[in-house]
Amino acid sequence: AFDVLVVGGGPAGAAAAVYAARKGIRTGVAAERFGGQVLDTLAIENFISVQQTEGPKLAAALEEHVKQYDVDIMNLQRAVTLVPAARPGGEHRVQFESGATLSSRTLILATGARWRELGVPGEAEYRNRGVAYCPHCDGPLFKGKRVAVIGGGNSGVEAAIDLAGLVAEVTLIEFMDELRADAVLQKKLKSLPNVEVITGAKTSEVNGDGTRVNGLTYEDRASGERHRLDLEGVFVQIGLVPNTEWLEGSPVELSERGEIITDERGMTSVPGIFAAGDVTTVPYKQIVIAMGEGSKAALGAFDHLIRS
Ligand code: FAD
Catalytic annotation on 134? Predict the structure, then answer.
């Protein structure tokens, strides 16, 4: 059994493992895919103190750093069930798809999130070649260019406002007949000279020249007519889904959006079970933030262990 078992091997899980192991306690990390979302990223330019790196390189560095310590790394292990301790101070158990079960006095849940995809032709083909999901990360790559933002909820409208300051033109495309974002955001959006809003539009294809995105096709839902926009980038903002399906039915409290609710030390509603990174309600899903939160959860778990 472990003192700390981390579930998830992205930036949050790797940071948690390093911090826990440095306390000299029995630490394990089990992850479906060590590296997490970072593996799907090309250029990373906001990992502070590293001016420029690439996702796979950072993912390899995360694993290398964890391996410097006495940590049991169990890759390609998908957690399917969480069984909390039957009594205070007891061991929590995690069951994996492989049939394995691990038990630990504390858990750190760091299973991250995934961007909801449009599921239209061209989206996967041009991912990282014009199709982007994170304006904080990739916005500057489109300086002076034309982009579309798909999605008129808060994240889509925030992205459009953010991008309007960097790019030449922004077209915001919303499926419904009106935007769903807060009124104050919509007002700000409407005040910007280089933003156009198209509602009642179903995105049907991301177009490209074989190398990069060069357009977007949408269908006017009222008339059924198809239109094409010439542009260089498409930001998909139709939701970030937390990887918490496996916690349904467990006593770990989730928000309405399915994110894990934590306190200021990273502890969930179940004593001894902590969480960190994109899987939690903590806002602004970024690598540096996930690492900070993972470190905090490990220190929180250590504190909990020495008190119980
Ligand atoms: P994740 O990275 O999502 O890691 C989750 C881990 O949990 C993975 O190991 C996964 O396999 C595992 N897991 C999931 N479910 C289970 C399960 N049931 N059982 C076991 N393991 C499981 N951020 C930046 O700061 N800068 C950028 O430039 C940047 N660019 C990005 C580009 C793209 C294309 C994407 C998708 C994201 C980008 N981000 C960027 C966001 C950043 O990658 C995330 O904020 C960060 O990876 C979150 O870390 P995490 O550890 O919380 O979760």
Answer: yes
pLDDT per position as a tens digit, 162-212: 999 999 999 999 999 999 999 999 999 999 999 999 999 999 999 999 999
DSSP state of 241: E
Q: Is 272 in the pocket of ligand 1 (CB under 6 A)?
A: no
Q: What is the ipTM of this complex?
A: 0.99
Residue 222, pLDDT score: 97
pTM score, whole prediction:
0.94
Distances (CA, A) of 191 to 46, 163, 168, 194, 276: 29, 14, 15, 9, 37
**Block residue for tokens 């479906």:** 32
CB of 91 sitting under 6 A from ligand 1: no
Q: What is the pLDDT of residue 290?
A: 98
Tell me how far apart the alpha carbons of residues 39 and 211 are, in angstroms, rounded to a whole number: 21
In the chain, the largest separation of any two C-alpha atoms, in whole Å, equals 66
pLDDT, one tens digit per residue, over 103-132 is 999 999 999 999 999 999 999 999 999 999
| Host H or E run for residue 262 | none
Determine the Cα–Cα distance for residues 182 and 173; give it in Å rounded to an integer. Answer: 16
Note whether 7 and 13 are within 8 A (CB).
yes
pLDDT in tens, 9-27: 999 999 999 999 999 999 9
**Among residues 40, 72, 138, 182, which one is catalytic?**
138
Tokens of residue 45, six digits = 């330019």
Tell me if 280 CB under 6 Å of ligand 1.
Answer: no
Sign for the CA dihedral angle at 16, 21, 26, 27 comes to: positive
Whose tokens are 């049991």? That residue is 72
* 243 to 37, 74, 114, 248: CA distances (angstroms): 12, 18, 7, 11
